[in-house]
Design brief:
Cytochrome_c_Peroxidase/MauG, mainly alpha, Cytochrome Bc1 Complex, Chain D, domain 2, two-stranded antiparallel ribbon, Cyt_c-like_dom, 4 strands, 13 helices, signal, binds heme C, 403 residues, 2 domains, Cytochrome c peroxidase
Length: 403
């Protein structure tokens, strides 16, 4: 089965909705429709409309979909390393926009993750959470960030968003689902929009269709070409790409299809992107899990440089890769994996390996294959092997997005 845990997911989702409604309901609000059974299709429709609505931004020009374009698996539609938004629509962000597909089972962040699909006695370390550093605990918490970030949709407050909702195209539908009283309250109106956005992002057909050619192969309905099959073998081989150690490629023991990530947070030592305006300041470092965007682990040096492993589903549609958008083709990314340690001069200024991390944190950087080499060694992958892995990655594009 493609989605063996769909029923479970739905149960979890409905549980989460009920919970959130309980949280959102003010003590004196028992007469509001919060006690009512929620209409998931209606919430999905509202969430979809809000997702594409630029009037929710301060500039009136930026919607969620501006950075998360459905034609690009809800990732960026261009090759900018970071998108431009903010109050004037021209403020550069700090990080590459991720794809929003296949996040439906993303666990909330935890420092010690025990996977119940595999060996549950192994502590996989920091895992999960929304965003590159895992700082948002749910889709709902996540949506709060862009709506209020001065670099993104740039609303000054929840009240500013609530006012837009009351006058926006979804006003009547929101009132119908959440009640007049709730929509009159700034905090609860804002919460209603976050919930609708979260529910929309759980729509199976739009966000996790499992329709790639590789899914067809797993269903026994298609075959990889010889080159793609070679790429998959190299992807899985612990002594070659070793990609599957983090980007899981096999069905889980209970039959769920692979998401091509274990959601773990790892430091790869990605080179500093000198085109990012924030990086013009040589003292500025985006250190991921230890800050500065995330603030709860600023005193944990072992967490500096760690970013969440992204899914590789639909990765061939992306035109900027890694948290800082440093690379623009899959070939460049693969060369980085294969040659980071054998040919560091191809990626870093002379004598400055791991130039996007202060030296105190260099020890955090992963050194497992293909990163287990030294200058003078043979790279783990040659050009033909890199091409084979890239060919395999192209089989991970969903059917509705193939061009
Ligand atoms: C200006 C571009 C921009 C806009 C507008 C934007 N996002 Fe994002 N989105 C990003 C970036 C960049 C990140 C990564 C943030 C980080 O790691 O700190 C992100 C991360 C996310 C994530 C986390 C994905 C993951 O893999 O954990 C979700 C979910 C998301 N955005 C949903 C939304 C929603 C919903 C909206 C509209 C309310 C929105 N975004 C508006 C750029 C944008
Ligand atoms: C030790 C875990 C690990 C291994 C092994 C690994 N990756 Fe990754 N991968 C990551 C992490 C973590 C990131 C994000 C790093 C960042 O942005 O700083 C990433 C990012 C990527 C990206 C960029 C995706 C995007 O949306 O920007 C691609 C492509 C990728 N990996 C492919 C591969 C391939 C192919 C291999 C094997 C050659 C591989 N990875 C091996 C952990 C791993």
């Amino acid at each position: 089965m493609t989605r063996p845990s769909l029923a479970l997911l739905l149960a979890l989702l409905l549980g989460a909705i009920t919970l959130s409604l309980r949280l959102a309901a003010a003590p004196a609000a028992s007469a509001t429709p919060y006690g009512r059974k929620l209409d998931v299709p209606a919430l999905t429709e509202i969430g979809r409309a809000l997702f594409f609505d630029p009037s929710l931004s301060a500039s009136g020009r930026v919607a969620c979909a501006s950075c998360h374009d459905p034609r690009f698996a809800f990732g960026p539609p261009n090759d900018l390393a970071v998108q431009l938004a903010g109050r004037d629509g021209r403020m550069p962000g700090l990080r590459a926009g991720p794809s929003l597909r296949y996040l439906q089972t993303l666990p909330p962040f935890s420092e010690h993750f025990f996977d119940n699909d595999g060996d549950d006695s192994v502590d996989a370390g920091p895992t999960g959470g929304h965003t590159w550093d895992g700082r948002a605990s749910s889709g709902r918490e996540q949506a709060r960030l862009p709506l209020l970030s001065p670099l993104e949709m740039a609303n000054a407050s929840a009240a500013e968003v609530a006012a837009k909702l009351r006058h926006g195209a979804q006003a009547a539908r929101l009132k119908q689902v959440f009640g007049e009283e709730a929509m009159a309250d700034d905090a609860r109106a804002f919460d209603a929009a976050l919930l609708a956005l979260e529910v929309f992002q759980q729509s199976p057909a739009e966000f996790y269709p499992y329709s790639s050619r590789y899914d067809e192969v797993l269903r026994g309905k298609a075959q990889l070409t010889a080159q793609e099959a070679r790429g998959l073998a190299l992807f899985n081989d612990p002594a070659k790409g070793n990609c599957a150690a983090c980007h899981l490629s096999q069905k889980t023991p209970d039959g769920a299809f692979p998401l091509f990530t274990d959601f773990g947070l790892i430091a790869l030592g990605v080179p500093r992107n000198r085109t990012l305006p924030a990086n013009a300041d040589p003292r500025f470092f985006d250190l991921g899990l230890c800050g500065p965007l995330r603030t709860d682990f600023q005193d944990r040096p072992a967490y500096c440089g760690l970013f969440r492993t992204p899914s590789l589903r639909n990765v061939a549609l992306r035109r900027s890769f890694f948290h800082n958008g440093q690379f623009h083709t899959l070939d460049e990314v693969l060369r980085f994996y294969a040659r980071r340690d054998t040919h560091p001069a191809e990626f870093y200024p002379p004598g400055q390996k791991f130039d996007d991390l202060p030296p105190a944190f260099h020890g955090n950087v992963n050194t497992e294959p293909p990163f287990d080499r030294h200058v003078g060694d043979k790279p783990a992958l040659d050009d033909a092997e890199i091409a084979a892995i890239v060919a395999f990655l192209q089989t991970l594009t969903d059917a509705d997005l193939r061009r």
